Amino acid sequence: MSLANEVSQEADKATTNDLIKCRDELLPRLKDLTERVQMLSWSLHQNFIDTYFNFTPTKSLEQLNYKNRKSNILSDFTKFQEDVKFLDKKSEKKEVIEEFENNCKKLDKSLNSFHDLCTVVEGKIILDKANHEFGRYNYTEAMVSVNELKNKLRSMKFEGNGTKALANLNSQAESQLALYTAELSIEMEDIFTWSQKKGGNFLTYSLSVQQSDPSLLQKILKSLYVIERMNAELALFSHFFIDKLLHDIIQHNCEIFTEDYIGALVFNIKINLNETKKPNFQTIFMNLTAVFEFLQSTLGTQLVAEKTFIQVFADNIQDKFFNKIIEDCIRNNLPSCEGTYENYKNIVIELDSFNKFLIELKFVDTDKSPLNGYINDTECVLYNKKCDKLLSDVRNLLNESLSYGTIIVGTNLEMQNESLFDVTQKEVVYDLNNPLFMPRCVISQNVKRIMSMIVEHLEESIKLPQKYNNQLVMYIKDIAVMYQCIIPKKFKINLEHCPLDIALFFNNCFYLAHSLLGPPWRNSMPPPLAELLNTTLLECIQDLRVLGLEKISLFLQAQKNVIIQKIEANELPWSHDSYETLDRGINYAITLMQDLKNAWQAVLPARMYELTVCTLIQALCQSMLGRIFADTKPICEDLVYMIAVRFEDTIAEIATLFEEPMKFESKIDVWSKFEMMPKLLKAQMLEIVDLWSQHKGLSQSYACEEIRLIIKMRFPDDKYRLKILKEIQ
Fold this sequence. Notes:
Blueprint: H1 3-52, H2 66-90, H3 98-121, H4 123-135, H5 139-154, H6 161-191, E1 192-199, E2 202-210, H7 214-226, H8 230-233, H9 235-251, E3 254-261, E4 264-272, H10 281-298, H11 309-330, H12 338-360, H13 378-398, E5 406-409, E6 441-444, H14 445-461, H15 466-490, H16 494-497, H17 499-516, H18 527-567, H19 576-600, H20 606-628, H21 637-655, H22 671-682, H23 685-694, H24 696-701, H25 704-714, H26 719-727
Antiparallel strand pairs: 1-2, 2-4, 3-4, 5-6
Helix pairs in contact: 1-2, 1-3, 1-6, 4-5, 4-6, 5-6, 5-7, 6-7, 9-11, 10-12, 13-14, 13-15, 14-15, 15-18, 17-18, 18-19, 18-20, 19-20, 19-21, 20-22, 21-22
């Protein structure tokens, strides 16, 4: 073994021996201290049970020599902790003092229980002392001590009878604190009172504060503040102040005067109920200033705490106070046009002075006053009011009937594009009479007025800061959403059964959508605003288009179902009665489409009118063809002729639904097939064979099996028919 290793081992032995020696010196002290703590804890626990569970104390704390024993334990424990810290610094081998540490943990656990027991046995002393202090008008000290005791008891836990004793002690503390609070409330009611008296044509509000004992008033206010009862005590006065006093000061002219009774100062607000003239801003703010100055001079100067009396009062009423001032006093006088703007500037002077007074009084923080927004930027106040008026005017316009006043908009151009409204217009001036990509149609006048107001506000917003541009864009989006929500609900029946209103609603939705695309906006608005309009309104523009299409599609689907039901409702096989049923169904469909022509042709865009009517024609044609092939039994020749003539008449009647000749083949899938049906019903067998072999349109429209069915229905079953049927391939 090297010399270095030998030296290291000797050093370790020396260190270990020192630790053992130090531990051996501290261990008896540790055990003695633990034993003393446990013995006193047991005595205190018994005293606590006897006092608050059995209610028959056997030994008092003086008899237990509680103060000295507790003091000695705490003093010895402090010295012991210092010695243990010294031992920890020297110790690097924890295994040497492991047993010692376990004993230390046992002592810590005993001390925790000991501290709780000290608190509960001293509870009676604290409560008795609090009663004594409260009787000497030291309200704050008494209530704070009981409140602190309550808070400590809340975190404690005992077992067995200790739990019940703890509950009894806690109950006594709560009862004592409640009694103090009740007595302070009575004192407060005597010191600060308010009343309302009505006599004849006058209404008088009175606020009274006792001045005979300022020291007592200070103690009461501070005690209520410290135990956080001030807000509760001011709750009734807060309601009185907002609902009655403030309301009448805003609505009526007041006469204010004070009276000095023996030991009390009374502040009176007298109101003449016969006077109809409302007070101006200056009068209102002067009267409110007088009320606050009275409260500050009488109660505010007496509360010495982190918050002033006015600050505590503000916690109760601040939001309602400012809402009342803004709604009843300011908002009704906000300018909605340039003519009233100059008058509002004069109001702002008074408003600013009152706002500064409230800030100095600490009723509100400088940067948190709601009045700042009505003072600092009067141009934006004017614009905000205009935006609110915009929404209000739009709501009023939306109450008008869809067909109350109509106007023609859009451009009547040749439309090469198949899309309903995506019309490429060249060299056209875009305005509200001719929105972007809008074909000629009829809309409700109120929709155009709405767009006119929107454009006016946009043009005016260019002069204001960017944030107000953003606000207006959101207002415009709200208008689009309002139209989508209000109109379908308000005119629900009309949009289900009235063709004219359905067409106008469809046009209105598309007019709003295309107008909100702008003329386009980048040509007339600053780039940031134009970009914001395009991105923000994109979703609601699409929603408007979808909603318009949805309403007209639902109506068309309902009419299609009725047409199909009436055509397919006749009985099988064919007879004169079933033909009459078919004829009535066709007449209904043609009459319906004639009515829609009268309602829609001059209202809807030309292409939309074509698509809607062709949708119903398609349903009629398919139903009639389906009825022909529904039964393959032979039909008498005169009935076949009647059906053929009815097909021809239907073709002629359909043609009258349009002002100009229409290429139905490109609009209606089954038109060629429908148009050929009367020829097939009138032709002889050889003519049918010739048509099948020579007419390409026939073979493209009909399957060979359908031609065979027509032959089987019309001609008798013989060898000649069999031969003809074989040729139809």
